[in-house]
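Troubleshooting: if your tokenizer reports a length mismatch, compare against these two reference records.
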Amino acid sequence: MTPQDLSHALLIAVLMDNGGSMELPAGAFEADALGGVDGSWHAVEMTPDPAVGPAPLGRARRRGGDHRMSGHLAVPLTLPPGPGPVDVQAHAFTVLTDAALSGDEWDADALGTVLDWGGKLAGPHLLSDAWDGGLIDAAAVAAHIGQVWSAAEYPDAALGHDRWRELFDVAGFTVDGAPAGRPGGPVELWRGSVPERRADWSWSTDWETAGRYASGYFGRPRGRLYRLIAPPGALLCANGGREEAEFVVDTAHPGVVITDG
């Protein structure tokens, strides 16, 4: 580790240990504070504590806020030039892995580029991997999680409810990708589904939309119409992009009761 890397790592470690920010006195960056009168700099030494072992230095995940990319990305977000066909979905995962290992940081637009490469089937896994890899912050998750959910063919099964719950908790409640306050009271929602999938998370405020799903209109097995009253805390996001008045609902949330429509 170079002296420059060590200095940066120590700064991040101190900031994170103090909740992400700290106040410094006005004279903290004066010459006498940073070094000697001859222009030299103070040296820093890290000594492991025998009781707990050495302190690991690593990359700290960004915690919220609208962070943006700045400067050069080590891994460019471009498709290979060929020749021949390109497996765009596989390329999306390769770029994500290389970028995470290189310490790149993506904003919402960069994440959107990679999600477009992956398509609706790979979208949930790309979003999940980008968060785990430290590539994105909560703002980027919030900008895309609703669309990723809505576009996926079977979103509930793509990641499982436990993982989705973690990611929606990171994002907070959103409406069409924008942070928003949850409704002030319970919301009546409808779902058309086969009985074994009645507790899946995609619901609609429009019973006619839900009824079309129940009828098998979209090429799905014929099912039944279900109704629930969702308390605000069960609502994870609202999506209007497909004109289906969709709410994503954590159906395991306390107070959620599903009945026949």
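Reference record two:
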Amino acid sequence: MKHLILLAALSPALAFAAQPIDFHYTNTQVLDAPADAGDATGKAWFTRCAEGGEFAMLAPGYAPDPRMTREEREAAEKDFDRAKFEAIAQQAFDRVQQELPQDKLSLCVDFTRPDDAFARDKMRGVMALTAGSGRIIVKLHPGSDWAKLLPYVLAHELHHSYWAKHHFDPNKPFTLGEYLVFEGRADNFAKHAFGEHPAPWIDALSADQYRSTLKTFAPLYGDSSPQVLMGAMFGNPAAGIPQWAGYTVGYRLVAEKIAHDKLTDWPAISALPADNFLPPQSP
């Protein structure tokens, strides 16, 4: 019943009929492949799901997990409600298209291992990556209630997809300031689209931690080193940066700008330079 309620909440999106999503089920691809075709399957998956995307270099982390056994994949497939998944995903795509129109969406779907407690408990059953404009990869924990978070996660990733098509510049360094705003805009759009924010990463800091983290980040906004970016966004305990600190900071900075300036036009919000959302720096 709760999933019927969720679909009903998404029903206004039906007024805007987007293109049908091009679904690709990685689990089926792996199960249908010969047992010794691991490398070939991985290459075919990359070609199908990521090749040519602006962020394709990040996709290998979402490739079929070779540690997942055939028995685990068969069990996940047996319990998976593909019709429900496709209905929720399509209606989420239709909703996003009302404000951020974009081209055909390729959505590659796979499962995490059943013993992946991080995916199940921390990520609440849904992990996703935008490989580029129109290319999204989703991994579901087979034992989770993934339907609750799925619309929000897809809206988040579809904002990335829109931004990649219209504003990504491969010749421009991707700095910490850019990364904070990149994620903050996506989370604010997802909340705007679906009226809630069930994701844990946007509320990962106390008030004191938020103030402290802002001070830590301030001199690093222009840094584009992978160590700084990953530590800031996902946490660096040795440096006193909590898990998901960057996601929370980015979400709050973008939310404050939207509220202060009463911004409502999402293509315009998406086009604003990242500096517009960052606190002014002391001389």
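Descriptive notes for reference record two:
- The chain is about 50% helix and 10% strand.
- The CA atoms of residues 34 and 41 lie 9 Å apart.
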